[in-house]
Write a structure and sequence with these properties.
- This protein has helices at residues 24-34, 90-93, 134-151, 181-196, and strands at 20-22, 43-53, 56-65, 73-78, 81-86, 96-101, 108-112, 155-163, 166-173, 202-205.
- The protein is α/β, with parallel strands linked by helices.
- It has a four-stranded mixed sheet with strand order 3-2-5-4. Strands 1-6-7 form a three-stranded mixed sheet. A three-stranded mixed sheet has the order 8-9-10.
- The chain starts with 19 loop residues before the first strand and ends in a 17-residue tail after the last strand.
Length: 222
């Protein structure tokens, strides 16, 4: 954790509906860091989403004056600790938990987040009447479960063919050329298809990603 500074503004009203859960262990760690400042009560824990790494978001955490929070921030209070989030990160962090690994002095803070930058990761296929041969059932999974999810991010998945136990898909829209396409396919779409259609043991992407022009996510810059 390190100090940082940005433009000031009026402190927004605390959030009555916390976006982020903070465990007692995490609050204790942040307060331990803060206690080394001559005026610890002026400092809040600031948490920002900085990018993506595979199927997960990356974060930056630091101590900064609570008074620097403005209208573009959300302030949560956890006993004597204020946590400041950017309003633009709210949907990415909603339902996440800030926790601590290890003991107070050597342990680090981490975010356990159920949300993913890839919309299909963690997709749960709802039980339904999937009838017909394997290809028809794959189409039904795409139409009912997968495409409604990735369509919200400008993407779509089309079935090209089913041969033996392999389904061949073409990704379009925002998924074509997307830096997260492989994550979306392998950790989202493929898992959902295999769950619903056990005969399918492999899912292959035949998309020409080189011609994609409208990715909805980019890989984190290294």
């Amino acid at each position: 954790m390190s100090d940082a500074h940005n433009a000031g503004g009026n402190v927004p009203a605390p959030s009555d509906d916390p976006i982020l859960t903070v465990t007692d262990a995490a609050r204790e760690k942040a307060s331990w860091f803060r206690s080394r400042d001559p005026e610890p009560e002026r400092l809040a824990l600031w948490l920002e989403v900085t990018g993506v790494d595979g199927p997960k978001y990356t974060y930056n955490m630091y101590l900064q004056e609570t008074a620097k929070a403005g209208g573009e921030h959300v302030v949560q209070h956890h006993d004597d600790l204020a946590v400041v989030l950017r309003a633009e990160d709210a949907d990415k962090l909603r339902g996440a938990t800030l926790d601590r690994q290890g003991d107070l002095e050597t342990g680090g803070l981490f975010v356990d987040n159920p949300n993913s930058p890839s919309p299909a990761v963690g997709l749960q296929v709802e039980p339904g009447d999937l009838s017909g041969d394997a290809a028809q059932r794959v189409l039904q999974v795409l139409d009912r479960q997968i495409n409604p999810q990735i369509a919200m991010h400008g993407g779509r998945a089309e079935l090209v063919a089913v041969e033996d136990a392999t389904a061949y898909l073409r990704l379009g829209g925002g998924c074509q050329g997307c830096g997260m396409a492989n994550v979306t396919l392998k950790q989202g779409i493929e898992v959902a298809i295999k769950q619903a259609v056990p005969e399918i043991t492999d899912v292959v992407d035949v998309t020409d990603h080189a011609s994609g022009t409208n990715p909805y996510f980019e890989s984190a810059k290294k």
